[in-house]
Amino acid sequence: MTSQARVTSVTTDARMDRYRMAESRLWKAFGLEPIERAVPVGATGATVRVQEIGVGEPTLFVHGTGGAGAYLAPLLAALPAVRAIVIDRPGWVTSDPADFCARDYGTIVSETIGAVLDDAGIDRVHLVGASIGDLWVLRFALAHPSRVGRVVLLGGGPISPEISVPPFIRLLRSPLGRIIVRLPERPGMFRRQLEGMGHGASLAAGRIPDEFIAWHGALSRETDWARNEREMVRCIVGRRGFVDGLVPTPAELVDLRRPTLMVVGSRDPVGDHETWQRFVAGLHEGDLELVEGGGHLVWLDEPSAVGSRVSRFLQAPAAYGDGLVQT
After folding, report:
1. Is 322 a domain residue?
2. How far, rounded to the nearest angstrom, does the alpha carbon of residue 318 sit from its chain's CA centroid?
3. Which end of the chain is less congested by CB atoms within 10 angstroms, N or C?
4. From residue 230, how far is each of 1, 141, 147 by CA, in Å?
5. DSSP assignment of 72-125, as one string?
6. Can you give the CATH number for the domain in which 278 is found?
7. Is residue 289 part of a domain?
8. CB-side exposure of 170: number of CA atoms within 13 Å?
């Protein structure tokens, strides 16, 4: 297995300029203009890219494999009372890659999120994850409960022993994945990927804007996210599935004493409604919201409805154990 430490960024200034133009158009399509900074993580000199939007309850967002943090723009536009702190995971856009083969996944998660919170001067925060970002926020909440208020999980992810490795992730890990990550992404290719994630109806109805499609194409052409993500996948997926210790066990999750909301689409190919009902039932204080007709990136299909549900959850009066003091 190739260590991710061998992956180095070859993103040139010209490529990054082209990417930033597409990303800026996406943010502006939703009336957003984030402030960007690079946050040092650990003693290696590595940094992680953070974008911040809005004022209100500090809420940290972690994306999945479907795109960098900017793909949350439709949701963030529907969360006006949130101070959104959006991480680009290691290896995405300008965030330095991490060696997921050499170090424990949960340790990398804790160091990264902890560094971002410390840099922003935040003691406690709400957490919102999407796809594998769900794993990030759960791992951090389990390791550092005193720093976490409420937890939101968007779409299915590697957070239940019932979930097998998705076909695309298995393909990415395979030798063929080396070729796949070098293929130039065309708009039609990405549209087919979105259809496979359950977003066909939204595409047909024009609910997914052209700026989103163009941004993802620039992300794939102008940055090295795909190669870096493949190296991460090769470290966390073995021949029989996810490596031991990656997915939280039911015994771990029952100790998660933080209110948790999971929002999934009925067309999400990662798990099904019954799977996530059982998952949420195993939490100390969990709730499940099903978006009929929604896909894996559920906020793309119903940004206003998902945003409203998430906003109500985050703004609910604190119960004992929430970890945040309401004023």
Report:
1. no
2. 25
3. C
4. 12, 26, 31
5. GHHHHTT-TTEEEEEEE-TTSTTSPP--TTTS-HHHHHHHHHHHHHHHHT-S-E
6. 3.40.50.1820
7. yes
8. 7
Per-residue pLDDT of the chain (327 residues; tens, 9 = 90+): 444 444 444 457 899 999 999 999 999 999 999 999 999 998 788 999 999 999 999 999 999 999 999 999 999 999 989 999 999 999 999 999 999 999 999 999 999 999 999 999 999 999 999 999 999 999 999 999 999 999 999 999 999 999 999 888 988 888 888 888 888 888 999 999 999 999 999 999 999 999 999 999 999 999 999 999 999 999 999 988 999 999 999 999 999 999 999 999 999 999 999 999 999 999 999 999 999 999 999 999 999 999 999 999 999 876 544 544 332
Return the sign of the alpha-carbon dihedral for residues 104, 71, 264, 127: positive
Residue 113, token pair as written in the block: 């999120």
Parent domain of 133:
4-314
- Give yes or no for a contact between 124 and 149, defined as CB atoms under 8 angstroms apart: yes
Domain count, the chain: 1
Say which DSSP state 278 is in.
H
321 domain-assigned: no
